[in-house]
Design brief:
The complex is a heterodimer of chains A (369) and B (348). By secondary structure, chain A is an alpha/beta fold. Chain A folds into three domains: 121 residues, Rossmann fold, CATH 3.40.50; 146 residues, HypD, alpha/beta domain 2 (Rossmann fold); 43 residues, no CATH class. Helices cover 37% and strands 18% of the residues of chain A. Chain A contains 15 helices and eleven strands. In chain A, the strands form three sheets. Chain A has a five-stranded parallel beta sheet with strand order 2-1-7-8-9. A four-stranded parallel beta sheet of chain A has the order 4-3-5-6, sandwiched between helices. Chain A has a two-stranded antiparallel sheet with strand order 10-11. In chain A, strand 8, helix 11 and strand 9 form a beta-alpha-beta unit. Chain B folds into two domains: 145 residues, 2-Layer Sandwich (60s Ribosomal Protein L30, Chain: A), CATH 3.30.1330.10; 166 residues, Phosphoribosyl-aminoimidazole Synthetase, Chain A, domain 2. With 348 residues, chain B is of the alpha+beta class. In chain B, strand 2 and strand 3 form a beta hairpin. Chain B is built from eight helices and 13 strands. A seven-stranded mixed beta sheet of chain B has the order 8-10-7-11-9-12-13. Chain B has a four-stranded mixed beta sheet with strand order 1-6-4-5, with helices on one face. The longest helix of chain B has 18 residues. The chains are: A alpha/beta (369), B alpha+beta (348). At the A-B interface, helix 1, helix 2, helix 3 and helix 15 of A face helix 7, strand 12 and strand 13 of B.
Amino acid sequence: MKFVDEYRDAEGARALAEGIRRAVTRPWTIMEVCGGQTHAIMKFGIDQMLPGEIRVIHGPGCPVCVTPQEYIDSAIDLACRRKVMLCSFGDMLRVPGSAGSLLQAPSRGADVRTVYSPLDAVEIAALNPAREVVFFAVGFETTAPVTALAVTQARARGLNNFSLLVAHVTVPGALRALLGMPGNTVQGILAAGHVCTVMGWHEYVSLADGFRVPIVVTGFEPVDLLEGILRTVRQLEAGRHVVENQYSRAVREFGNESARRLIDSVYRVADCSWRGLGIIPQGGLRLRPEWCDYDAEVRFGRCENGLEPESECRAGDVLRGLIRPDQCPAFGTRCHPENPLGAPMVSSEGACAAYWKYGRRSDLGSPAS
Amino acid sequence: MSQLPIECPVEYANSDVVLLAHGEGARATRRLIQSVILPYFANDRIAPLGDSAVLPSVDGRLAITTDGFVVTPLNFPGGDIGRLAVCGTVNDLVVAGADPLYLTLGLILEEGLPLATLHCILASVRDAAREADVLVVAGDTKVVPRGAADGAFITSAGIGRIRTDLDLSPDNVRPGDAVIVSGTLGDHGITVLAEREGFQFQGALQSDCGSIRPIVLRMIEAGVSPRWMRDPTRGGLASVLHELAETARLTLEVDESALPVSPVVRGACELLGLDPIYVANEGKLVALVPGEQADATVAAMRRDALGREARVVGRVMARGTPGVIMRTALGSRRVLDEPQGSPLPRIC
């Protein structure tokens, strides 16, 4: 398959791993930002191909994992209202709120629909004029353009029964917060290729400069990831810290400008709460005032649930890269996908789920060479 | 409704959809059964229309299975709920080492189901039963109000005679045995998903819905002695391998690059964030055979049109810790997790 097979080529991957082994002279800690990258690393066993000096830690780039519990509670609360149909991406359904998940809510009478695109939710609104259709707008800069397009279409079609529950988050604000935290150990960053496809890599120049960390925009296939790691290691070994673009087949300096314009026309950058990390300055997107008619929180009122409940879940430390998922005392015992204590164990992109899914046995040997 | 006079003036015979009255046991029910359903199942066991089918005595041990079929949409490329019900039941008997003999079917129909759709379903049941050489010997029809079912549900039971030349049990499986699949993975699940959600993919998706009996017969003809067999339906290949690993307390290793997946299913899975090893099949066989019979098994399966893509995909490593390991295309090894609920589409 074009654009897949060449980036999963075993020989190419082994050559890159060898290149990393040759380039590295001392320990380095590198964070991949995106949950999709985390899963690819675990799924393809890339962690096993790296020399011992390279420590890969898993960043907060899973939108499901960082969506605050209060938004899930709000979504469930809305879905239980008689007139409301709540539409969501499938990933969000299993995440536990304070009392159950969206997947369980229909058993209590909620109307929850899984959609593949926010535009499908607009269609549902058009077909059900007597109902209120709310789309749970979750995700990074990758999904924001299409939720912006959905609300733009709803207005153009005169649909007054469509609104968004917005919990969009943005990457650069979170990276700034993580790199600035006391105890930060991250020395190099693999930036998320898909987010940069939309936003471009220019946003990262000031971060690389300000925190003196190399940032390599990286794709999601084994060859991409190994090349991204190799380029990061070479910069670290040479004492350099610039932005490089490994994912040049998709990413340009200023990204997809029409998608960015669409985001800007509907959303403003705002300080937002991230699950496990707290309030992140400029860490998310909220609707601009001129779109407040389409804001579910304005239309139905804000569901305030206060602070995150106490839990032994250390998702915040995992999302900060302070511990690996399997270093959490609850991992695999009290916390597993059938009984998740935190979102990273639920989401298909969550780091804890990746460790559970692909890496639980200690008897797995090193790769055949 | 039971107080209605028997001579109700409504002319059910002219209706082109299923009515509640069709399930109320009165004249409309009799008409539906005699004029719509029975013509598809003319055989000397079903003809007397008693409350039970009376069957001749059978030598040897019997296998019995029961199943329920719920699928949206009712029709999909490569099959429909009728074909699914017959093949699903037959395949459950076949992997138990039985020759399927008889089926029963319960139809639960939603009020308003077009009779034309019912005719199509029944024709599929008839054709699939003929292909699999089984007789439908008893049935039941219920009609539920609109909204209480999704078009049609089918329940089934199947009876087969256990073959004396097969000895199948998870306890028979040994380290060194080969894991063989009879063809491409994920065709049914992705076809139904694409049809339900209106996805268009380049290339023709088609469910593999069909009987796996011919493949098993080819294996037996070739003198292969399978140790254990399963049809990997919901949860896909990963689910049946986990079942075997748990039951027999074995470690299995699967070779990722050996898994047969059609290009269109592979592309669809890439796009949707799904893994074909977890996706449902409805006409595939997983067989565990002694390592030295692996090549003969693959050759035998490939002699049948349904087994052209048969491959060795893994082997049994050791006794002790139950689990399934995936050797990735890059040569590294990882856990192949058991599926957790149905796969959900990802955000990005």
